[in-house]
Amino acid sequence: MTYVAPVSEQRFVLEHVVKIGELAATEKYAAASSDMVDAILEGAGQFAEGEYAPLNRAGDEIGARWKDGVVTMPEGFRAAYQAFVEGGWGSINGPEEFGGQGLPYALATVIMEDLGSANMGFSLCNMLTPGAIEALIAYGTDEQKAAWLPRLITGEWTGTMNLTESQAGSDVGALRTTATPLGDGGFKIKGTKIFITFGEHDLADNIVHLVLARTPGAPAGTRGISLFLVPKFRLDAEGRPAGTNDVRCVSIEHKLGIHASPTCVLSFGDNDDCIGHLIGPEFGGIAAMFVMMNNARLNVGLQGVQIGERATQQAVSYARERIQSARAGGPSRDPVAIIEHPDVRRMLLRMKALTQGARALIYYAAGQVDRAHLGDEAAKNRLDLLTPLAKAYGTDIGCEVASLGVQVHGGMGFIEETGAAQYYRDIRIAPIYEGTNGIQAADLVGRKLGLDGGATLAALIADMRAEAHDAGLRALIDSVEAVAGHLASASADDRLAASYPFLTMLSVAVAGWLMERQGRAASGAEGDPAFLAMKQAAVRFYVDQLVPEAQGLFASAMAGADLLYAVDEAAFAA
Amino acid sequence: MTYVAPVSEQRFVLEHVVKIGELAATEKYAAASSDMVDAILEGAGQFAEGEYAPLNRAGDEIGARWKDGVVTMPEGFRAAYQAFVEGGWGSINGPEEFGGQGLPYALATVIMEDLGSANMGFSLCNMLTPGAIEALIAYGTDEQKAAWLPRLITGEWTGTMNLTESQAGSDVGALRTTATPLGDGGFKIKGTKIFITFGEHDLADNIVHLVLARTPGAPAGTRGISLFLVPKFRLDAEGRPAGTNDVRCVSIEHKLGIHASPTCVLSFGDNDDCIGHLIGPEFGGIAAMFVMMNNARLNVGLQGVQIGERATQQAVSYARERIQSARAGGPSRDPVAIIEHPDVRRMLLRMKALTQGARALIYYAAGQVDRAHLGDEAAKNRLDLLTPLAKAYGTDIGCEVASLGVQVHGGMGFIEETGAAQYYRDIRIAPIYEGTNGIQAADLVGRKLGLDGGATLAALIADMRAEAHDAGLRALIDSVEAVAGHLASASADDRLAASYPFLTMLSVAVAGWLMERQGRAASGAEGDPAFLAMKQAAVRFYVDQLVPEAQGLFASAMAGADLLYAVDEAAFAA
User: Fold this and answer.
1) B52 phi, psi to nearest 5 deg
2) Are B279 and B210 in contact (CB under 8 A)?
3) 3 state SS of B206
4) Most buried of A232, B56, B332, B434, CB within 10 angstroms?
5) Does A537 touch chain B (CB under 8 A)?
6) How far is CA B183 from CA A33, B142, B244, B270, in A?
7) pLDDT tens readout for residues A420-439
8) Which of A135, A161, A169 lies closest to A149 in space, CA to CA?
9) Rounded to whole angstroms, how far apart are CA atoms A487 and A493?
10) CB < 8 Å to A313, chain B
11) Which of residues 162-181 of A touch B (CB under 8 A)?
12) Where's the Acyl-CoA dehydrogenase/oxidase N-terminal domain (chains A, B) (predicted)?
């Protein structure tokens, strides 16, 4: 089956989790009226359903193809991308002075969700441009902003993030690409980057690479990194793409999934003629990288929701159509649709609850982006705290839901033509890129727990406690607080050993809090009775069953690192 | 890296979990001396490493190919299969009167583990023949046994299981293939079967299809099903393959994984000239099917261990070689091998513990097969109780460990050339085939809890309690007993709603019990110190961290089915 945008759900979460009405009451976001929100949700859903979803199988089966440095997308992709640009779907939250619509980021999140549910691989092209925009807004000169922002905001040009080199993955500071000043303000860029998403393609008229590199004599490690803007085509005097810039796509990867997304090896300056422009201060690259990265991390977490939604829709559809076996203990011996069998229904409700829980967490974080833009410093800190949760928990549940989707299909789930397996393959990258989930967990226990002297976490816990009713949920919040208290004085090893289970516990507590709130809101609310009943069932499943599961991680979170080092690394191979 | 058979581990589990010494003390299994066991473990490991493992990538990349009804395996497969036959690796536990070696089934399990770790897709060819052998031993006439068993036992001919039809998957009773008596004892077979593993190939001189079909006027459902032996080639007067038998491979599936295993659509009797032989009594098909199926279910559970072992070996190897980032909190700023980082080490120890836990459970079940063959009725019942656990838990952890293996590789895990992704794709079929894991859970709460009036489960719980020391493990055993007590008087819906979490809880309790036993045995044992230290670390991780996780499923197991049916099935699409 094809994708149907979950508009009721998106609207409900915007209202009760993001509290978009609060945003619309501000001068900055006054345009985000209820009617405008409805129009965007309906329009974005229809666009994704009509333009992106029909290309999802071709994206997987044909995929991006490389030949002699040129990357060709399957038929239909360029037209669909042009429709995205013409529809203005990329400019929703861009600043109005550069042609954007100035609407809340939370709405851009909904659009991104629709695009990725429809076609995850393709949507990566849309996903990385906003990071380049954010970095330029934060660090570009007025001239740079004027030259690059308008066409990035429309999507006429796309953006990339160039961090990774073969020896520098999670350890970005180990990168070796060089940037040599030319004396006229420009830099000559030389080096090879790997794993560059949409590093080359035929969808847009220019590609704006944001490249981390080292200037001559730069300090070692992350402190010596600077950020450069390196276009595929240089601009002429009128600001139009003109001459090429000595950036070559050497190859693309043969991957498990997201075949529609060309993952490029890019070689800069093979002919010593690659020009880059410094963005922000020299050695300010790592800070600029986090601006790009934090945006991308929320969006990668959102990919878990995208695939969770798509896989759930397909599994529900299959389970309602596939007739097999009578219902045990039922009055009739006639075979029924498999959705009638308790364990299939359990899987489907679990898929619903996980997807809704992660959506609540990520939309909530998106709402903090908007509040931070309004100058709310506490919201900025809360966003920073929630970003690793959004990325890691969102992608973890995306993988689980996709796997459950395969399982609901039985043997047909393993046959590629059915499509369930594609979601399972596509989403598996999400716990890895933009900082592995292990890196997210390290970020949580390393940087984020201590934000504002611990007050950021304390405020979140206080907010959760003030609203949470369920005894199990309150117990999980208590456990989270106890683990955090324990970790505050723990060794680095012990903190890191606890990091992943703690991240999951905290994520489930936050999602459980936001789900329980939605359950209360759904009780007695006006709207589609089927949607509201399903919402309440998903909330109860989340709170009654998923919250206690997360409580089961308490022992791991408190276990410490001693056991991990009880044997020598060589013994792991024994 | 290539596969290295975990001989120390296999030997240790045979000694302390299977207690193979007890088997060798019987007259029937006297040949299973310690020296013989060592020779088999070493030899099987070397065979799998040398013949099967080198073909694993080609099996995935080239795979089985179909053209005009003929299935061709990649180069090297036929020679490796012939080496398997010549080495006598298929005949270890076959009855001596038909050319087998009469050794314990537990040893055949070790051989199967090695073959599947080396090359899971290929090893399916080896995996299904034993089911055909078991069915013939149980139900064949003396003439049938003499005609078919010897060459199935050597592996010169291979066996298949033909159950599924497009409308009859989990609901086997819905099948429509017909068998019409010819008057001379033979039957004409007509129908189409799908998802037939190694239903056609070029590895062996004949293929022995065991086919479920209906005779004229047979009752509806499973009670009207009979089992037929349908060879690819009929035998001449000397018992050699001669004329073809109107069985045609119509197509093979395009699958997520196990590309080396041709999954066939088989058409029987297109030209009205397909002859089958009744195996066992008319309408005795479903009982015969369970004989084949139960064997296959243990072996499918074992596939989780196979891939768990292989994925863990590769992840450990990568983590010891890949240098990235300094260790947080460590004295040096030099980058280290990623196995030094706590969260990577946590993943690797988790992979070790899960794989060892599932191996203990499945080898233990295999030991019950041998005790049942010795006439121990309680062992037969315990085997029946453990079979759904072995199948479902083994395959679930196989998928989890393969996913962790991808994660340890970071971005490289998503690149197909690395190989980690193949394990992730290959193992995903295992929770589905030979009865989905949901069917296993239904079997557990439907048939198995009540075995011997509940005494089978009670005896298992008593054995676990008599030996378990750890407080968390004892608490899990208590919880398992409480859930089982609750389910005994629960409605069919409530039992089925609880079935999956309960299956996981009981599996972890059994594996935890057997792991804890191994931990005690390893303390002070003689042998490789690295292996013994690693065993103790894996045991502690299992007991201290995985057991409490399973305890977290208690709420789900007690929740009942009401919530699942709180909303109409149509609301799942709302």
Assistant:
1) -90, -45
2) yes
3) strand
4) B434
5) yes
6) 81, 20, 21, 21
7) 999 999 999 999 999 999 99
8) A135
9) 10
10) 573
11) 164, 167, 169-171, 174
12) 39-156
For B217: left if phi > 0, alpha if psi spans -120 to 50, otherwise beta; the answer is left
- CATH code for the structural domain at A288-563: 1.20.140.10
Residue A138: Cβ within 10 Å count:
14
Q: Give me the residues of A, 360-419, that contact B with CB < 8 A.
A: 399, 403, 406-407, 410-411, 413-417
B393 in Cβ contact with B550 (< 8 Å): no
Complex confidence, ipTM: 0.97
| Residue tagged 């010891």 (tokens) | B320
Average pLDDT over residues A433-447: 97
Mean pLDDT, chain A, rounded, equals: 97
Which chain B residues contact residue A161 at CB under 8 A? none
Residue B75 backbone phi and psi in degrees, to 5: -55, 135
Amino acid present at B30: A
Q: Give yes or no for A315 touching B (CB within 8 A).
A: no
Q: Provide the greatest CA pair distance for chain B.
A: 85
- The string of pLDDT tens digits covering residues A223-253 is 999 999 999 999 999 999 999 999 999 999 9
Task: Indicate yes or no: CB of A493 within 8 angstroms of CB of B342.
Answer: yes
pLDDT tens per residue, range A468-513:
999 999 999 999 999 999 999 999 999 999 999 999 999 999 999 9
A177: Cβ contacts below 8 Å, ≥ 6 apart: A162, A165, A189, A190, A191, A192, A193, A211, A212, A213, A214, A268
Contact at CB, B436 and A406, closer than 8 angstroms: no
Q: Which of A434, A467, A481, A569 is catalytic?
A: A434
Q: How far is A490 from chain B (nearest CA, A)?
A: 11
Q: Which band of pLDDT confidence, cut at 50, 70 and 90, is reported for residue B330?
A: confident
Is the pLDDT at B524 greater than 90? The verdict is no
The answer to whether B119 contacts chain A (CB < 8 Å) is no
DSSP symbol at B523 = T
**Which among B329, B349, B563 is the nearest to A493, CB-wise?**
B329
- Listed in order, strand segments (DSSP E) in A31-128 are 65-67, 70-72
CB contact under 8 A, A442 and B554: no
Alpha-carbon distances, residue A485 vs A449, A488, B328 (angstroms): 10, 5, 20
What tokens were used for A563? Answer: 């056991």
Of A342, A492, A555, the CB nearest to B561: A342
Calculate how close chain A gets to B333, using CA atoms only, in Å: 10
Contact B544 A537 (CB under 8 A): no
Cα B481 to Cα A322, B467, B484, B511: the distances in Å are 35, 16, 5, 16
Q: pTM for this structure? A: 0.98
Q: Does the pLDDT value for residue A459 go beyond 90?
A: yes
Instruction: Encode B429-489 in three state secondary structure.
Output: CCCCCCCCHHHHHHHHHHHHCCHHHHHHHHHHHHHHHHHCCCHHHHHHHHHHHHHHHHHHC
Convert the pLDDT of each residue in B236-270 to its tens digit. Answer: 999 999 999 999 999 999 999 999 999 999 999 99
pLDDT at A231: 98
Interface test with B, best of A161, A259, A343 (most B CBs within 10 A): A343
| A489: number of Cβ within 10 Å | 8
| Residue in chain A nearest B194 by alpha carbon | A411
- Are A343 and B566 a contacting pair at CB < 8 A? no
Select from A319, A328, A406 the Cβ nearest to the Cβ of B492: A328
The pLDDT assigned to B331 comes to 86
Of A228, A129, A132, residue with least CA distance to A186: A228
Active site residue B434: yes
Distance to chain B for A370, nearest Cα, Å: 29
Chain A contact present for B531, CB below 8 A: yes
Domain ranges of chain A: 288-563
